[in-house]
Amino acid sequence: MTPDEMLAVYRRHRAAEDARDFAAVMETLAPDCFLEQVSLSLRNDGKDDATRAYEEWFGAFPDLGPIPEAVAFGDDALVAYGQLHGTMKDRWLGLAATGRSFIVPLVNIVPFKEGLMHGERILYDAAMFAEQVGLDVHELRAAAARA
Questions:
Q1: Domain 3-146 is found in CATH 3.10.450.50
Q2: pLDDT tens per residue across span 66-94
Q3: What are the residues facing 116 on neighbouring strands?
Q4: How would you classify the pairing of strands 77-87 and 65-74?
Q5: Counting C-beta atoms within 10 Å of the first and last residue's C-beta, which end of the chain has fewer, N or C?
Q6: Pairing, β 42-45 against β 29-37
Q7: pLDDT for res 105
Q8: Where are the domains of the chain?
Q9: Whole-number pLDDT of residue 56
Q10: What are the C-alpha distances in Å from 109 to residues 6, 45, 46, 101, 147?
Q11: What's the mean pLDDT when you consider all of the chain?
Q12: Whole-angstrom Cα distance, residue 69 to residue 84?
């Protein structure tokens, strides 16, 4: 795919996320898609599992979203980076909501497959995230391991 083609799919995906339209989010993803939060070793495979993960993540952090800085391209891959922000308003991974907000550096690696996003490999500092939202990082990692 060309960078312009990848960017067009990614922008449709982001618009669907912003609208919290998870069916439209899934339309931008390959059938064997994945959602991976590297710092917590969380990985969801396939559209059903990924949909559940998106619903839980955006449900717990209703204002969740990136603050984009730039996008770079490789062979069938897009890398978006900037910051991620949100407020923990509901339970996530079995952990009680804290009502606290966070803003952390973000790198999102997006491989493409057959004209769609194959998935999202999301990288952020789990310790920084946990500290800002008022969670113990060890409890957060344990909760992620149980998910």
A1: yes
A2: 999 999 999 999 999 999 999 999 999 99
A3: 113
A4: antiparallel
A5: C
A6: antiparallel
A7: 98
A8: 3-146
A9: 95
A10: 12, 16, 17, 24, 22
A11: 96
A12: 11
Q: How confident is the model at residue 5 (pLDDT cuts 50, 70, 90)?
A: very high
Report helix, strand or coil for 2: coil
Using DSSP's 3-state secondary structure scheme, residue 26 falls into helix
Q: Cβ of 70: how many Cβ atoms within 10 Å?
A: 8
Percent of the chain with pLDDT over 90: 99
Contacts of 35 (CB under 8 A, 6+ apart): 43, 44, 49, 50, 53, 54, 119, 120, 122
Can you give the three-state secondary structure of 103-145, one letter per residue? Answer: EEEEEEEEEEECCEEEEEEEECCHHHHHHHHCCCHHHHHHHHH
pTM over 0.85: yes
So what's the pLDDT on residue 117? 98
Q: Strands 116-123, 29-37: parallel, antiparallel or unpaired by DSSP?
A: parallel
3-state class (DSSP) for residue 45: strand
φ and ψ of 52, to 5 deg: -60, -45
**Nearest of 57, 78, 61, 54 to residue 4 by alpha carbon:** 78
